[in-house]
């Protein structure tokens, strides 16, 4: 089964993840986790929240995957989710000052 997943293109992996295939979603996380974490660190600049915010991003991806449209690259969509979560974190920090 592992070999089959490695030969799938991204669109097929996303389709399977949308259908509830946990292995497909794990592949998405594995592929983009480091890029998301690096982006969060660049935006927030605080390594103590990177792991939590990365988890928040992928939770939002899980919750919103059914709304993903194939018109843009998957990472573009995940990037936007990441930026939005970082903006929320910045606002939260500003309110707590």
UniProtKB/TrEMBL annotation:
Lineage: Bacteria, Pseudomonadati, Candidatus Kryptoniota, Candidatus Kryptobacter
RNA polymerase sigma-70 region domain boundaries: 29-95
Family of this protein: Belongs to the sigma-70 factor family. ECF subfamily.
Record's protein name: RNA polymerase sigma factor
Keyword Protease tagged: no
SUPFAM superfamilies named among the record's database cross-references: Sigma2 domain of RNA polymerase sigma factors
InterPro entries on file: RNA_pol_sigma-70-like, RNA_pol_sigma-70_dom, RNA_pol_sigma70_ECF_CS, RNA_pol_sigma70_r2, RNA_pol_sigma_r2
Organism encoding this protein: Kryptobacter tengchongensis
Presence of keyword Transit peptide: no
UniProt keyword terms in alphabetical order: DNA-binding, Sigma factor, Transcription, Transcription regulation
GO molecular function terms listed in the Swiss-Prot or TrEMBL record: DNA binding; sigma factor activity
Any single biological process term in GO: DNA-templated transcription initiation
Record PANTHER family: RNA POLYMERASE ECF-TYPE SIGMA FACTO, RNA POLYMERASE SIGMA FACTOR HI_1459-RELATED
């Amino acid at each position: 089964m592992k070999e089959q997943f490695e030969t799938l293109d991204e669109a097929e992996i996303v389709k399977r993840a949308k259908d509830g295939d946990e292995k497909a979603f794990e592949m998405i996380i594995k592929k983009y986790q480091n890029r998301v974490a690096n982006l969060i660190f660049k935006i927030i600049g605080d390594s103590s929240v990177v792991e939590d915010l990365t988890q928040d991003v992928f939770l939002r991806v899980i919750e919103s995957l059914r709304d993903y449209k194939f018109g843009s690259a998957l990472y573009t969509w995940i990037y936007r989710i990441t930026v939005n979560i970082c903006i929320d974190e910045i606002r939260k920090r500003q309110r707590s000052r």
